[in-house]
Design a protein that fits this description.
The protein is α+β, with helices and mostly antiparallel strands. Helix 1 runs antiparallel to helix 2 and helix 2 packs across helix 3. The protein has two domains: 101 residues, no CATH class; 73 residues, SH3 type barrels. The longest helix has 37 residues. Keywords: Membrane, Transmembrane, Transmembrane helix.
Length: 237
Amino acid sequence: MAPYFLIVLIRLKHMTDPLKVKPEKTIMQRLRTYFLTGLVVASPVGITIYLALAFIDLIDRNIKPLIPAAYNPETYLPFPLPGIGLVFLFFMLTILGFFAANFLGKSLIRIGERILNRMPIVRSVYNTLKQIFETAISEDAGSFQDVVLVEYPRKGIWAIAFISSENTGEVQAKLQDDVVNVFLPTTPNPTSGFLLFVPRKDVIYLDMSPDEGAKYVISAGLVDPSRLPIKEDKPSA
């Protein structure tokens, strides 16, 4: 669906304003323009609603069977209640977090982690997932920091990338250079990409925010980010 949506955007890119349709010579050309404009307006809304409903349905199908009948509102209602599984999951995770934050909960978690760390394959999977979730939820390092340009796949060709974090581990020590962790996403699916270790001096920082950079990548360059004024250096007196 994503490539087809990009084709529609490419066609509308040549219009001055897709919402202000210019008069065409024939009725068919007008209808075609109206259809493409309506498709661009309705598709993001429709796809977003579809994905949200699919996610809620997935949670409900897996969580509802775990809800005791006495606490399930559908037991007393003559109709199904969408989202009750999601609400129940939210409360259960909140209660779990409350118990995990006290002394007894922390002790039980440490015991469980010791058991998991003795299982070769399970240990690797658990520690990797734990680090990913802790990093994603952390308030200090939960998102990309900056949008940059890096030379890829060869010298003279530039690509948009995101600085994920500062490199302070073994890679930094072995390279003996000031490098940063750079995530290079693919288009139009930015969830896949490459992790690159790039010298800080070889990246060009952009003024756009990570959200604007993500939109630029997803749209294959068709959706221009908000242009910020370039700060010029003041001439020395």
